[in-house]
Write a sequence for this structure.
């Protein structure tokens, strides 16, 4: 991100906030046309933009240093609050600064008269919204109580400053808050390379970095990875030849809970992840509290049925109907008059709860009390809702029929087709669910073994929607004698194959097993697969690495001269 983009990001964020908060005002740069032409709309430079929240005042007030700092961080944009002042300022103004720090809390002293509070990267947008929505109005009241109304920026002054900077704002350079929330990492990426090069290993580190904005050692990341999987923010799946669209998205599956063969709707791993991400994205964008999902509430509601009980649903007028069973997406119930064999649809109920459908006639009298009950049980979590990134790791992504598994998702995966984007799209799923879309806080990390399938053979439609990152043998990770052996084996492989797709990764040699065991159980079987069982060719490759190996037609096993191995490589 350039300095110009940084200042423009700050401008877009603040102007977007002002749309729903018309009384909100802030301070622009006042002098320096060259600075404006360079895109520096606020105090600052290439590395930061300072946005004053109160009138600069004059003399010793130094009020220009109460505001928001947007700065360039390693991952994009960092946000913090700053409060700096002159020691000789009016005591009333100093009192305001003290009350400001006490109200907001978390300030660190970065100088004798300078205090800063940095927001966490993963929650900084919601933290800033919380400050603007909840804390700044209280600061404005404190100013008025102290008789410092002159520090407030009135709308007329704001519009005058805005008019001054607008000629230097190019409308085509939009950096929206939605873009910032996901700009740090590719939305869709595939880690590719020969076996043993750490693709799956690194996918865990990448997923944790995307989810939390932070990364530690691999051991620390693995602990965090397991926690985030339990919480539903990260999913991990391995593709195989039998993996289908129904497994990944939606479909039907046999119901094993009944004696007769019946089928029930199935929601796949990616569908469920998208639904969780969508609920979080919408709650964050609307700055509303995030509700418990329909699926979670409904499952909790029907728990008594598992113990053979029934569930009474109160109706208007003092009556009630009784749910007797939920099976195959169907809710069976008895009417208040005792007649039974009546049904409602779980999918229809969910659509009504989520505002996607209305049902005012016929069975609507039974849907309405259920909808009301579920709304009451959708307990909100703490607000404001921070935006979270949700990640699915697809290991061995090229082992399935990728085009078939992804189906219509191929279109929705594109950055500009996501929710909130310029060309956002929604589609009707094969199960009839309308308006399905993917939010911008869903990330896909795939791993691809090039020994199974070259990138050149991957569907072009899929290729252009993913970013590819190559992983190859890392010789720096090894010590002798493994280092020299692997280098020479890979040189021999490359000479014959003319491609790096069939190299052998360093991971095989990082085990605690003896070198001979690694060669016999890991390396030679891989070479036999690469060269279609041609033992003489495999023998020559090993010989190039000074390994004396023979294939016995007596017991059909490979044997390595351990003495020669020790003499050659010790």
């Amino acid at each position: 991100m350039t300095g110009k983009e940084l200042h423009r990001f700050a401008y877009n964020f603040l102007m977007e906030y002002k749309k729903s908060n018309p009384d909100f005002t802030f301070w622009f740069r006042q002098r320096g046309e060259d600075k404006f032409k360079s895109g520096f709309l606020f105090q600052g430079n290439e590395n930061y933009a300072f946005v004053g929240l109160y009138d600069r005042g004059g003399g010793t007030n130094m009020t220009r240093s109460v505001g928001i700092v947007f700065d360039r961080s390693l991952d994009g944009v960092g946000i913090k609050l700053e409060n700096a002042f002159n020691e000789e300022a009016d005591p009333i103004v100093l009192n305001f600064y003290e009350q400001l720090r006490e109200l907001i809390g978390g300030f660190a002293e970065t100088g004798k008269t300078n205090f800063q509070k940095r927001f966490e990267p993963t929650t900084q947008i919601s933290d800033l919204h919380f400050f603007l929505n909840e804390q700044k109005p209280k600061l404005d009241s404190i100013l008025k109580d102290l008789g410092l109304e002159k520090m407030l920026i009135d709308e007329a002054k704001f519009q005058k400053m805005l008019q001054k900077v607008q000629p230097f704002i190019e409308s085509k350079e939009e950096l929206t808050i939605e873009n910032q929330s996901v700009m740090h990492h590719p939305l869709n990426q595939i880690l590719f390379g020969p076996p043993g090069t750490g693709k799956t290993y690194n996918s865990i580190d990448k997923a944790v970095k995307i989810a939390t904005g932070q990364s530690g050692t691999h051991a620390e990341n693995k602990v965090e990875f397991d926690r985030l999987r339990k919480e539903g923010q990260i999913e991990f799946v391995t593709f195989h030849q039998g993996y289908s669209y129904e497994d990944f998205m939606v479909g039907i599956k046999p119901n094993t809970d009944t004696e007769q063969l019946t089928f029930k709707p199935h929601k796949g791993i990616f569908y469920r992840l998208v639904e969780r991400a969508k609920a979080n994205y919408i709650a964050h964008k609307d700055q509303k509290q995030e509700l418990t999902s329909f699926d979670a509430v409904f499952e909790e509601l029907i728990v008594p049925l598992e113990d053979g009980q029934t569930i009474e649903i109160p109706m208007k007028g003092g009556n009630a109907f009784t749910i007797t069973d939920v099976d195959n997406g169907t809710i069976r119930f008895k009417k208040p008059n005792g007649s039974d064999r009546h049904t409602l649809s779980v999918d229809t109920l969910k659509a009504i709860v989520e505002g996607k459908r209305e049902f005012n006639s016929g069975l609507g009298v039974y849907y309405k009390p259920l909808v009301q009950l579920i709304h009451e049980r959708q307990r909100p979590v703490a607000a404001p809702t921070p935006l979270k990134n949700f990640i699915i790791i697809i290991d061995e992504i090229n082992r399935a029929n990728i085009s078939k598994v992804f189906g219509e998702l191929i279109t929705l995966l594109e950055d500009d087709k996501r929710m909130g984007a310029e060309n956002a799209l929604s589609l009707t799923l094969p199960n009839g669910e309308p308006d399905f879309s993917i939010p911008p806080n869903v990330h896909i990390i795939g791993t691809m073994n090039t020994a199974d399938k070259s990138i050149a053979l991957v569907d072009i439609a899929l290729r252009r929607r993913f970013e590819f990152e190559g992983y190859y043998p890392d010789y720096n990770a090894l010590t002798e004698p493994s280092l020299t052996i692997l280098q020479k084996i890979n040189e021999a492989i490359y000479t014959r194959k003319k491609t790096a797709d069939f190299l052998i990764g360093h991971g095989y040699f990082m085990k605690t097993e003896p070198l001979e065991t690694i060669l016999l159980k890991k390396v030679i079987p891989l070479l036999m697969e690469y060269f279609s069982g041609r033992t003489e060719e495999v023998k020559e490759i090993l010989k190039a690495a000074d390994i004396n190996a023979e294939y016995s037609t007596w017991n059909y096993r490979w044997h390595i001269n351990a003495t020669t191995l020790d003499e050659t490589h010790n």
Q: What stands out?
A: The radius of gyration is 31 Å.
